[in-house]
Amino acid sequence: MSSPNHSFARWFKGQGSTDKKASEESKSAARTSRRSIGLGEFMRSLKGTGEEKLSVLDLGSTSPANIAFLTELGLRVYTEDILRASKGQEYLVRDQDGNESFDLDKFFKENFSYPANQFDAVLVWDATDYLPEALVKPLVDRIYSVLKPHGTLLAFFHDKDAGPDMPYCRYHIVQPDTIELESRPNMRLQRIFNNRHVENLFKDFASRKFFLGRDNFREVIVVR
User: Fold this and answer.
1) What is the pLDDT of residue 48?
2) Is 1 inside a domain boundary?
3) Sequence-ordered alpha helix ranges (H) in the chain
4) CATH number of the domain encompassing residue 169
5) Contact 210, 195 (CB under 8 A)
6) Which range of residues forms the domain containing residue 211?
7) Could you give the number of structural domains in the chain?
8) Which residues pair with 55 in a beta bridge?
9) pLDDT tens-digit readout, 195-209
């Protein structure tokens, strides 16, 4: 995970630093390619005005390809592998009766620490389908806070045909409307959101636009 603050900080500009391990894994792993209408819509929203430099936050598994692609467009790119961070055992606590819960306060003290209205766009990918239940809505609320007014969010949601063994993927942007999917191990699908659930999840945002994608995906563009 990365943030511009005290924990694992990186701010990627131009051809800046990349995660060497992520780069090596990406080169060796098999990928599948697919067209993404939602990504195309997302990319069209990233056209700034004048000398303005827009900021994008990528919450998926760190992808050197995404960093390079977006910075070549003149964007500031921040990355934070939110799902990997959420798997930290230090965030699981038990009460005196042995009931387990997720420590949200501790998690947000150590992760996703950004000022309000910092980002013009956020790439969520399909992270919300895999995150711990207790973290999903609080994270969406935090995304709302860090997005600028009229900022754009792209999220993917699996449909009802996806099973619990549907692999979590690292997404690599190769064209403005094309991504490559690289399966990641040890991540199990936690839930399936229907369209009503998605609407409710982003109810505080100004608009939501759905696209029916391939491979059991729905793609959603959300505008603050």
Assistant:
1) 65
2) no
3) 20-28, 37-44, 64-72, 82-86, 104-110, 133-146, 195-201
4) 3.40.50.150
5) yes
6) 20-223
7) 1
8) 76
9) 999 999 999 999 999
